[in-house]
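Box 3.1 A note on notation
Throughout this textbook, protein chains are presented in two layers. The first layer is the amino acid sequence; the second is a token string describing backbone geometry. Keep the layers aligned when reading.
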Amino acid sequence: MTSSDVPDNRWSDLERPPLNATALRRALVRPGSLWTSLDVVASTGSTNSDLRERAAGLDEGAVLVAEEQSAARGRLDRVWSAPARSGLFLSVLLRPSPRIPAERWGWLPLLTGVAVATGLSRAAGIDTALKWPNDLLVTVPEDSGRRRPGEATVGAERKAGGILAERTADGAVVIGVGLNVSLRADELPVPTAGSLALAGAVTTDRDPLLRAVLRSLEQWYGEWRAADGDPAASRLQEAYAAGCSTLGRTVRAELPGGASLTGEAVAVDGDGRLVLATEDGVQPVGAGDIVHLRPV
């Protein structure tokens, strides 16, 4: 790994300046804060892998941010790629209290989604929808050149980010967040991808965006931890349902092992599972890929 604090390459790309690690530490790592350390590296394979390997020697609240990742992973080891300094690529180390039942730890990636969406609403001025279980969606306006005069602007939901939670050998949790910030249309890895810039964010300055995301995560994690992981008492279940674009849609759940379920997504239950109303009755889904078949 190479530190991005190297001064002689700081402004090598004026459109995508590097993060200011010193200023970020000053703003976020302070007495009483969840965040105990913050490192920014120029390039690495995967921040999640790096933080998992180092977890045993770190306190809760360690943050690792990369300007570029060469082997970033999503769920099911899917590859996540983006140009250097075009997004936020970070992982955080959390050590939930032993008082919190293990079955409630499954709420951590959903909690992170709520926190990211809340932070981006404040700092970027856009709505970020949550696709169960771990995708971050933005609405990207369709090409205005294809619209007839007087026709309303139509937007399409696009994936701008994802969340990956992994356990460490010493029983902690590493949560990774990948978020496309300044990607242009010709840089998108797939047609269904999006970015904050394409969604009309008021800023693509990653320093305030990162501060907003981490402060929001600190707040939501603190409330969840204070409630011993209870998603109802911490308001997490309510907040997730309010921001989840999967609810109210007809979806197909592609389950581990090759099976699938089709039905209307009607709720997220107390265990963080997606509840589908199918022809055969109500079915909770704890893991799988969700395909949106019908808009809300």
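The chain has five helices and 15 strands. Residues 1-8, 144-153 have pLDDT under 50 and may be disordered.
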